[in-house]
Amino acid sequence: MAILSKGMYNMRYDFQKIEPKWQKHWLENDTFKSEVDKSKPKYYVLDMFPYPSGAGLHVGHVEGYTATDIVARYKRMAGFNVMHPMGWDAFGLPAEQYAVKTGQHPRETTATNVANFKKQIQSLGLSYDWNREVNTTDEKYYRWTQWIFLQLHKKGLAYVAEVPVNWCPDLGTVLANEEVPEQVAKGYRVERRPMRQWMLKITAYAEELLQDLDDLDWPESLKEMQRNWIGKSKGAEIDFAIKNHDEKLRVYTTRPDTIFGATFMVLAPEHPLVEKVTTSDCKEAVCSYQEQSSLKSELERTELSKKKTGTFTGAYAINPANGQEIPIWIADYVLVSYGTGAIMCVPHGDERDHEFAEVFDLDIVAITDDNERYINSENKENGFVLNGLEKEAGIATAIEWLEKNNCGEAKTNYKIRDWLFSRQRYWGEPFPVVYNDKGEAQALSEEELPVLLPEMSDFKPTGTPEAPLSKATEWLEYEGKDGKKYVRETNTMPQWAGSCWYYLRFLDPDNEDKFCDPEKEKYWMPVDLYIGGAEHAVLHLIYARFWHKVLYDLGCVSTKEPFQKLFNQGMILGYTYRNYKNDKGEVVSHNDAKWKVEDSGQIAYHKETKEELKVELVAPHEVVWKDGKVYHEELDCELEVKAEKMSKSLGNTINPDVIIKDYGADSLRLYEMFMGPLEQEKPWNDTGIEGVHRFLRKVWLLFIDREGNLNESIKDDAKLDKNVEKLLHKTIEKVTNDLEKLRFNTAISQLMILVNELGGKEINKECAETLLKLISPLAPHIAEELWALLGNDPCVCEQEWPKHDPKLVVDDEITLVVQVNGKFRASLKVAKGLSKDELEKIAREDEKVKTHLDKEVRRVIVVPNKLVNFVL
RNA sequence: ACUGGUGUGCCCAAAUUGGUAAAGGGACUUGACUUAAAAUCAAGGAUUUGUGGGUUCGAAUCCCACCACCAGUACCA
Q: Is any atom of nucleic acid chain B found less than 7 Å from the CB of residue A865?
């Protein structure tokens, strides 16, 4: 990184002095305080509030928060009553892991981390209304999280169940399905084991959660992820009789029309019928298979590359379509928790069934021909005939036949499971629940809230499914109004609980009687713009929608959906440089290196010699960029460059504090917005920030001369050059449009064009002020300082947003492009609004064009105000 | 494997409805200023939009195929 000789700049643009000064001013004057004001249109801009981890703010936070801040500031100036709050999602694993690691109490580390985050956030000049700050670990806050839990419980949406859960021994807790991939990626083990757990019935809202996605202004990719997660499928449940048994075997299939091809059945190993139907000679094999698969983790069971396994139960089912007896197997590729936990297998149509049939040498009956027409799919005796039909009609006919013959019915299934809602950790909301001596759960009344989290010095996970709160002996005991003794629930709620409704608490953070005043809720909701990372697609964003819908059904909120418009900022990546070496320590070109996955992790090897290669990370200060390639400063060899997610282990993180110190918050804000489109992933480039910093210095020099006085070129009544005036109005128009569409990079580039043009010219005060207004949402500190230096009262951020004069942005002369056979031949300045004939005439008469019109003109294409193309 | 996204000078990128591709920033080169460097100012080059085909008077933009990278999902019957 280039080192700035600070002394030089400080004389001119002293961001280190300016920025804290205005941050203090805004805070002390409550500049961004917002209250319900029905005379103005409201605008609710929300960030995904952070987990205040020990690592502090990173540049990814800065990106999203700057974007919302720009919108908030712009909307305020444009006449909106803006809600822009910030708070802390401070319960949960990251904070607690840190506390466990350092041995400090989570309450202390959380307080320290929050203070640090807040300081960092404030040093960015973000326009939050700090009167509305919330913290999910505050008892005044989690009291209402518990209250919402009670409402869910009352509606029957919270229940205790003994279910196979994702137990993570490393973290000492169970995890929700949605959380598993992330933790596994971090290297934690996750096992399946049955445990008694609190569940929330999110499945009851599956259809609504799916349907209502359509009306949301969200990125299509994110909606698609939620749709996939909900995983709606239509099909049928079918009953198969079991030979020599009264009980029926019910399966779920999306293709009831393939039933004639069903040549065997597979049950999940845990299916309750397995014990009943297994014949004595198969018992041993079945039991041992059941045991084997119960030990396997979910990951092992779903390992795709693995060969199919299973075993025969000895029992036979009867295919209702054709009366055939088909064997019943068990196999762990069938999941108990989906559908009925049993399937009919059609090896001709289904890849997985086919593979299984191959492995165990089971029958494969063809049911469609090469043209996808049904064959072998009719039974004249019972009137079930599919041959000759198309797929759609086949499915409909099959369902019809099944329903008429009482052996099945149409059925819709969802992949989404109920939300596993308890954690065996200390740092979370306690459940407002107690157990009587029979072990029955009983919800506490609303008056007994909050159930406080007890102070404990030993809050570490026990390493067993027993939660840490079980060690809080005094707290555990609860005496009911009936005088009986109860024991408290020792599990706590998961991280996601608090973030399910924080956007509502912001609207009325100090309310002691309600989680939120309905009047305030009605005024502010829904959230008009919500910006955050895409990693929350199927976690926070689906949980919060679920709670919101429950609250809507209870009449507690006025909208069906919480977040009308959602936008994902792209991740900011960091460059990593790698060097490959062979056994002898010789450098190998990265072009010859390949990667493969082994049990021990990823291994690099030489693509020809196959020998294993050592990989060295090279620190950024040791590399030299040249012509798009990267070389090692000393070794003088070419390195591999990649833009990767920033992480400590890769050493490619950027600390925003350092950037703020060296270049200022305005530069950091501007750079992150200028890097590229907000939604795109983009690598951090050290030299890039110098460009925007230079731009801000240029702005400064436009106003202030070298002695620190107001520049003489700014005159109250200077007459603006016509072209300058036009550019100014074009800039107002473009910046306004770009901010509306979150295209900050192009807005900044337009401002650069304007500032370059204004340099060295005489400008009037109005023009100077307009420029500052346009800049102020993006780089608020410098705009504020210059606004004051112009002799104005603070603040520029409270001024009215400039409007462009439509008459001034219209060009009265246009550049006419003349093409011959599609090739560019001339560009001519002509008056705007000429007719097609006039344009053609002018084009024909041009000398340069004439020389190319050597053949007969067959056709002339004229686009008014744009171009003329002669086709020969 | 499937789904979604991306691919434009050395790098990050811009390009209303198809209409001069490369605005803006960085890097680089040169000049001015300077004892010198930095900073500042001024000037400058490159090119056919991942590859191949198609539609069109005209394609970065629309269609087809392929390649590369990124993200998500992963036996959900």
A: no
